[in-house]
Amino acid sequence: MKEWINILKNELSLIFEDKSILLTCLVAPILYAFFVGSIYSEKEVSQIPIAIVDYDHSNLSRKVSQLVNTSEKVAIHGHYSSLGDAMFHFNNLEVQGIVILPKGFQKKTMNLDGSHVELILNNTKFLTSNEVNKAVQQVILTVGGGVRMQYLISNKIPVEIAKQQAQPIMPVIKPIYNTTNNYADYLLPVLLILILQQTLILSFGQSVVHEFKHGVLQNLNNYSFFGFIKVLSAKSSYYLVLFVTYFFIFYKLIFPHFSLSFNGSIFLHLFLSSLFISSVIIYTTLFASFFKTTIGWTEVLAFSTYPLFLISGYSWPIDAMPTALQYFANTLPSTPYFKVFNLLAVEGARLDQITNGFIHLFVLLLIGYLLLFVRYKFLKRKTKAII
Fold it and tell me: Which among 242, 250, 234, 232 is positioned nearest to 277, based on CA atoms?
């Protein structure tokens, strides 16, 4: 026990001596949480300025403009007769989109020939461009449906049948994990979790690389696998406690600060987080053993955030991925974590509804230990061969 405590003390000394580890594990999580969160603080956008270029000057084109302007998300900044005038305001960022109604718009639409309406968007702001796109599409679909219905009624088709034929398929949207239908509400929770995951990987990985290079693990011949795990448990205990505390702070303070959904048992959340952190620590140890320098570890892992996010199944269904990527995704601790987290935080799931996710994480933890044992044996044989 005394040796275990000494290793823990040495780890704390290393953290406060190495400014890179200190900043990554103590400062970065909170700093980045508020920095990233501030980007999405204005989650609801409204009155987005757009321009209308009307080449038709017809009653129908004016009606479309009126309907677009009634949307709560957009507001017409001005009407223009030429694209050049509208582009001047677009390039000066005075408007975020331009709707172009072509000449002959009313005639072609009323004749059911169809008309090509163009929409130019400023995609540097994806939240606003997405809302403009949805608002304009909804208006065009509404106008098109109304024209078709009037055409059918004029041919003496009953109103109810005309409605069904004009709009044969009515979309029914029932959001599950994004109840507000808001991109920021959907994305921000996982970004906050990724901040914790990546700062843990970077900081603890740097410590492991340092231990293999300069610490007690330089000579593995002095340790059995049990002794090896004892060293790692002493080193990782600080990180486990620290990041469980971070998860608690995020759940209880930062999530409410950004008005993010957080339901379910706090005990289940913390148990899930502890299992997730333990899995991340094991796999971090495994992969850090392949690196010779802390700089190399940081350079490689700093670019892993986005790929890990994309493959985890949060932004894209795992079932829709290529088979090889599906297998790889299911080896990542973040895959079952995000799934269970959504069920807990959004739906308030009970333990019996998320058992499979916990089992998945636990199996990954056991596999990680097995792989670490194999890696330990290889490193020990390699050390003996050098001697």
Answer: 242
Q: How far apart are CA 109 and CA 159, in angstroms?
A: 20
Q: Which amino acid, 369? A: Y
Instruction: Tell me the C-alpha distance between 57 and 76, whole Å.
Output: 16
Q: Are the CB atoms for 294 and 209 separated by under 8 Å?
A: yes
Cα separations in angstroms, 5 against 204, 216, 282 = 18, 14, 20
Please state, in angstroms and rounded to a whole number, the distance separating the CA atoms of residues 59 and 81: 15
Location of structure tokens 């290393």: 14
Q: What is the chain's pLDDT, residue by residue, as a tens digit (387 residues)?
A: 676 777 677 777 777 777 777 788 888 888 888 887 777 666 667 788 999 999 988 888 888 888 888 888 888 888 888 888 899 999 988 998 999 988 988 888 777 777 788 898 988 776 788 888 888 888 887 777 666 666 666 767 776 765 665 565 666 666 665 666 666 777 788 888 989 999 999 888 888 888 888 777 777 777 788 878 887 888 888 889 999 999 999 998 888 888 887 888 889 999 999 999 999 999 999 998 888 888 888 888 878 877 888 888 777 778 888 888 889 889 999 999 998 988 888 878 888 888 998 999 999 999 999 998 888 888 877 766 555
Phi and psi at residue 52, in whole multiples of 5°?
-115, 125
Domain boundary assignment for the chain: 2-40+182-386, 48-166
Give me the amino acid identity at 80: Y
- Residue 50: φ, ψ to 5°: -135, 165
Residue 331 to residues 55, 70, 335, 361, Cα–Cα distance (Å): 56, 49, 8, 9
What angle in degrees, to the nearest 10, is found between the helix axes of 266-288 and 183-214? Answer: 40
Q: Are 264 and 357 in contact (CB under 8 A)?
A: no
- 58, 112, 138, 140, 143 from 104: Cα distances, Å: 9, 12, 21, 15, 15
3-state secondary structure of 101: strand
pTM of the entire structure? 0.74
Domain 48-166 of CATH type 3.40.1710.10 = yes
